[in-house]
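Q&A FORM
Asked by: J.P.
Topic: structure of PKD domain containing protein

PROVIDED:
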Amino acid sequence: MSGMSAKREGLSQGVNPEDGCEINIYSKICQIFRKSKSQPWFFSGRDDALSDIIGGIVLTAVVVAGIGMMAVVLLSDVPPAEIPVLRVDLADSKATITLVHSGGDSVYREDARIMVDGVDRTDDFKLLTDDGELVDWNVFSTGDWLVSSIPRDAVEEVQLSSIGSEVPTVIQALVSQPVSVSPPPIVYFTFSPTSGYVPLVVSFTDLSGGDIINRLWDFGDNSTSTDVNPVHIYNRSGIFTVTLTLCNAAGCNSTTDNITVFGFDDFIVNESVFVYGNRMIFEGDNVVGDGSTIVITGDLTGDDLNGDAKVGVSNIYIEGSVELSGSQVLGNATSPGILYINGSLSLEGGSEVYGNNIYVADDVVLTSGNIYGNIYTFGSFDFIGGNTYGEVHTKGSLSLTSGNVHDDIYIDGDLTLGWTPTIDSGVSIYYTGSISHPDWYSQDILDKCHHVDSVPDFSMPGFSTPPIPSARLDGWYSDHGYVSGKNLYSGIKIFADSYKRTAKSTDSAENIVIVAKTGDIELNKFGGIPVTGVLFAPNGEVIFGGSSFESFEGVVIAKEGFSVERGGVDVTFRNIENYIPNRDDFPWSDSF
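REPLIED BY: S.T.
REPLY: Here is the structure written out as tokens.
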């Protein structure tokens, strides 16, 4: 084989034919070291020996460095910085630049710049929170608004740039032509009730239109809320202006309305209240109160009344239950109003109740007695006997055993028939549930009973009475002519911790005002001496005792109630303004 052929063969096999070294990145080093075997480096006789050695070392360093760089690139876990992908719109925020994140990746403050006409204005943009506040921003995400005070009519271009990559990159450039956004909200709300007595619970409903970012209710009594449909309690009287303010990026709008909250003074005068307390024990004959109101915060039972007692008051509010028997009468036959019972009602004997509308929160049992007026019960109705002179509405079942039905009955439930009740001609019973009756039952009665899909709905009227207020400060009474003496004479005003008086022949008791700050007011044996005026015991009871007490006219307000311990006594209502015409002189405070 010739020398040229041998060289080609060596090249093709990756071996240098001159020195037997492989042809690769180390071939130069190989050649140098093979030459060094035949000649020492420093005594070689060749001038290029040293340069060959140095060149080999340098080449080795370069090769090693290159391998290291490739390893770093190939083996490193840190990816190159990515550029966020998102859509940003320019919103019209009352002539200022506002950026709207419309979707995509989040942008972090440390990796971004906001350039306005080539100038870095990043620090001029603030994040609009859900509460309508502007705060420094750290991240810009979908739905966020970045608001500035930069006038948009002076701006040509806004750029959002990423500086997180090696080369700053413009994410999006916006020309100063805003996208269409919603106008400021159209504000409208309703509330119920619109007026009432302390404490007044009011429900508000926001019926506004448009995009809403921030909402603020101002109830006019130094209270606020950010709820959509709040419920608020007014604990003092007055006329309060309610303001609802709604904001979005386009601006804010407000609307107002007024709520009237009546206090205890208003309640006593407007409702003509003359007895207000926890209970009423009346062994007398008649309570006369045409157009007036009694409030009893507890129960009223037959044991509390004389067997023939007649409580002839137009409007009666009882927070507990009522049980009447004998010939007891509750309500005014000639001037009926509302009878509100927040418990059950039971009538026996010849007892009677009167009212245009009678509301019972629980069950009704009519054993024998009479109901005059429309009655609405949220419980069941057990009609055993007696008479109903008005419509009957019940949300529970009704059992009709006997008795006389003089007007229509509406049952949102089951009807049970027994024995033989009397149903007037033209009167019907409507029920939504099932009907049950004996097999032998009268077809004439069954023909008056009609199954229906629904009956007229009703609700218990909202009724809240303001709590009895406390007495005024002691100094107020002395400044207004009150005395603490025990003697009693007409026109006197007495203020004491408690007051007890047994009548003397020299006493007179017309147009009096007695305030017992912590205890009871007790008047005994005032036979032949008329008692008229205002009796106020915010923490006690008013008691008329003795065998000869005859009559009282006026107003009784006592937390623990009103007790007339003797028969033959008549009590007649008179509005408080007959005795104290100026409300500023009413003997109670504004606090409870």
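FOLLOW-UP: Residues 1-78 have pLDDT under 50 and may be disordered.
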